[in-house]
Amino acid sequence: MKFLVVAGGTGGHISPGIAIYKKLKESYKEVLFVTNPHGLKFPIVKENVESNDLFILPISRSFSKNLIGNLTTLKEFIISIFSSLKLIFSFNPDRVILTGGYVSGPIGIVSTIFGKKVILLEQNSVMGLTNKILSLFAKKVILSFPLKGQKDYPSKYERIGNPIRYSETDILIKEYAKNTYGFSEEDKVLGIILGSQGAKKVNEFILEHIKELAERYKILWITGQDHYEMVYRRCMEEKNIKVFPFINEINVFMSAVDVAISRAGASTLSELSFFGVPTVIIPFPFASKNHQYFNALFFETHGAGIIIEEPDLTIEKLLSALDTIFRNIEIFRSNAKKISPSNATQKVIQKVLDL
Predict the structure, then answer these.
(1) What span, in angstroms and rounded, lies between the C-alpha atoms of 19 and 254?
(2) Judging by DSSP bridges, how do beta strands 189-193 and 117-122 pair with one another?
(3) Alpha carbon distances (Å) from 99 to 40, 82, 140, 178, 340
(4) Do 352 and 97 contact (CB within 8 A), yes or no?
(5) What is the pTM of this model?
(6) CA 334, 306, 191 angle in degrees (round to 5)?
(7) β strands within 194-283, DSSP E
(8) What is the mean pLDDT of the segment spanning 84-91?
């Protein structure tokens, strides 16, 4: 069988796409990974996808109120349609797996027109416009979270969970993982994870109160590439703080962390759940249709974390939330672990093969 795995240029789409690609490559030779130029900025793409398996479409944005921007988008869309036609004809895939993002649009349209079996993955609690359209034609729609406001689903919808790149064997003994960063088993380790592009306002807030946090916890901080220098300069003398622009193999980080402060991207929450890391969640307030809030709400209502919305963020609320989780750490850990099934990737693959 031949497979196309299509993943848009954000971490939330790239990560499950890589997980599916790697799993398929264990058993099948002909698997292509399709993304856009922005997707190439993620080191996990070049590190995990064989160069001969990589295919790039130029589309990187949606239509907006900006006329000039729309002309660029239209040009990219047309080129992507013709490139998709060429790819579908030359490669002739048996399954096309879309993990979302603008790049899924052209491939999804062309694949549907030519009768290919399209499988759509929706990571978030609110479906974006591209996925809404593609879901009408997909043979299977796989959900990570229940969709907001939707009680009844068509038979082709199924909530399985979000594919991640790790298995149970990647979860390290906590003492060993903490020692890797120079911490002891007894240390309370706080992980700060603010998405693939970071979060300027939250990074600045944490920097403002870093001494209060460092007095209470050892800190592992993934800043995002754009904010790394700013954070590193301020924290380089602090022995209790380790700062990283990004971490490719995140299983050691996740195994070491007791509690996290995080945005609410679906892939990040799925990985936190898989590793049993309870979280203080600060949703990105400008996410499309506020989907990060609804992702976070699912986490909170299942007892796996506490939401603080960005406009309400204060050091008092943050310390209180962290204290609540640490005082009830085993309950929160257990609840977090229950959200994301350990075999989600394999289950998704099986659904793809069964179509």
Answers:
(1) 17
(2) unpaired
(3) 16, 21, 12, 33, 17
(4) yes
(5) 0.89
(6) 75
(7) 218-222, 241-244, 259-262, 279-281
(8) 97
Has residue 346 got a pLDDT over 70? yes
Nearest-Å Rg of the Cα atoms of the chain is 20
SS3 29: coil
Quickly state the pLDDT bin for 323 (edges 50, 70, 90).
very high
Which residues on adjacent β-strands are paired with residue 142?
121, 158
281 strand-pairing partners = 262, 307
Question: 19 burial class (0-12, 13-18, 19+ CB within 10 angstroms)?
Answer: buried
Asked if the model's pLDDT at residue 188 lies above 90, the reply is: yes
Can you give the three-state secondary structure of 166-212, one letter per residue? CCHHHCCCHHHHHHHCCCCCCCCEEEEECCCCCCHHHHHHHHHCHHH
Cβ neighbours of 267 (radius 10 Å): 27
Structure tokens at 232: 């590193």
